[in-house]
Amino acid sequence: MNASAKELAALLPPGFTLGVATSAFQIEGALDEDGRGPSGWDVFAAKPGAIVEDQSPAVSCDHYHRMPEDVALMKDLGIDSYRFSLSWPRIQPGGSGPVNPAGLGFYDRLIDLLLENGISPMATVYHWDTPLPLEEAGGWMNRDTAYRLGEFAAIAAAAFGDRVDRWVTVNEPATVTTNGYALGMHAPGEALMLKALPSVHHQLLGHGLALQALRAANVRGEIGMTNVYSPMVPASANPLDKLSAGLMDVAQNRLYADPVLLGKYPDIIRAATFFSSSFSPSSEDMDLISQPLDFYGLNYYMPTRVASGPGEGAVPPGMAEAMGDDLSGTPGAPFHIASFPDTEHTAYGWPVKPDYMAVALAEMAERYPDLPPVYITEGGASFEDVVVRDAAADRRIIPDERRLRYLADHIGTALEATRPGGAAESVDLRGYYVWSLMDNFEWSAGYKQPFGLVHVDFDTQVRTPKASYYWLQEVIAARRAASAAHVPGAAVGQQEPDADAEPPRPAG
Ligand code: BGC
């Protein structure tokens, strides 16, 4: 037994959900099969230079054909819940109008298989794969897309509302706006900078309409939405650095969380819109956006260190290179992202700062007094993996100690922070979903940034659990053992104890 696995298990409150997360476009492949329509991401990814080494999402993890194998990996891992996304272009190929029965059928089978295996389904309605006809009509710059998302949510609710335990309406609108519409690093590849602002409001409105549709359909699951949150850290005590960090905080955090949790945009945004007629949200819109949630989804990966002045680039140091993109030099930019000194970084160039997991939760609690229960809907790290051949045992080993440590430290910090007396004790933290179950298509970074607990060989499609997978398996087994010891005969989570369970056979 790895001592830290046992220690972490001891920290887990009763009923705490441990899960893994993926998204449709990143794992499914089968882009042209069974009636799926094209998405804005299909077109963006096909543009020369858009993706590292022009890698293609066409096959990715081939999950569309290997779904039962992937559910078996989750079952062996022992997780309580699986967060996946519904592919809009697979279910409603045109983004409006007819539904594709084969698309619905795929998720029917997935959800049923999860439930048969005691894994609770969490479905994300929108995780960035906008159907192409909608993208061509302006995507999230067009208000109509929000109404189309509401209709899509109604379709999903009618099909799966009886079996999905938790719904996430929209995933990380901040990333879609910043990377997709402001900087052009993600689909649709627009570099509108501040003119991208309407895409914020339209996504949040899409969230509100999707939430309304799910409630109207009386789905039995809980409903929430997911924002990414990155604490902003001024590079120095210099007032300009502080001001810069405050502006980044508005642009990346408050702009998305305030409307949902407080029912209004930050003051500075409202003041700015005084000068622009293109963005004037009505009170009806704000009511839709701020409807009560059953839970709030928080994706936490890292804090951001901010300094005034143009600096060297628009993205964290190392990330531009990792994405194969020339984003260096943003002449005239008022501030930039700076590195944390003496800090470990992931392969993406992201700082590894578990203590800021607690800061993120504490800031959320302070800003949003009526914060609903929270699930950390994503957290994880990309590190270059090395596959080692264990000749004696005739198997492959992937000793991803750094990813394992990242997860142990972040989950542990989140649990400590939300205990009585912790820095974020008022936060009702209900669960943590590891990003990701398996290595996958990491958007513009292609297959170059592996986040998986399971390694995927993209030539052979062989899946090999990494050390981090076996560690999480130990955490879950230790929790089960501890709870069985306390209450004779009781099992925590939704799975029966299985002391003799063999880990899945590592592929040779
Ligand atoms: C997204 C995922 C992505 C992950 C790692 C999140 O922003 O929701 O789709 O793969 O972070 O970059």
Automatic annotation (TrEMBL):
The catalytic activity of this protein is classed by the Enzyme Commission as 3.2.1.21
The top EC class is: hydrolase
Q: Which Gene3D superfamilies match?
A: Glycosidases
Note down the stretches annotated as region Disordered.
488-508
| Catalytic activity line of the entry | Hydrolysis of terminal, non-reducing beta-D-glucosyl residues with release of beta-D-glucose
- Tell me which UniProt keywords the record has, alphabetically: Carbohydrate metabolism, Cellulose degradation, Glycosidase, Hydrolase, Polysaccharide degradation
Q: Its family?
A: Belongs to the glycosyl hydrolase 1 family.
For this entry, the protein name equals Beta-glucosidase
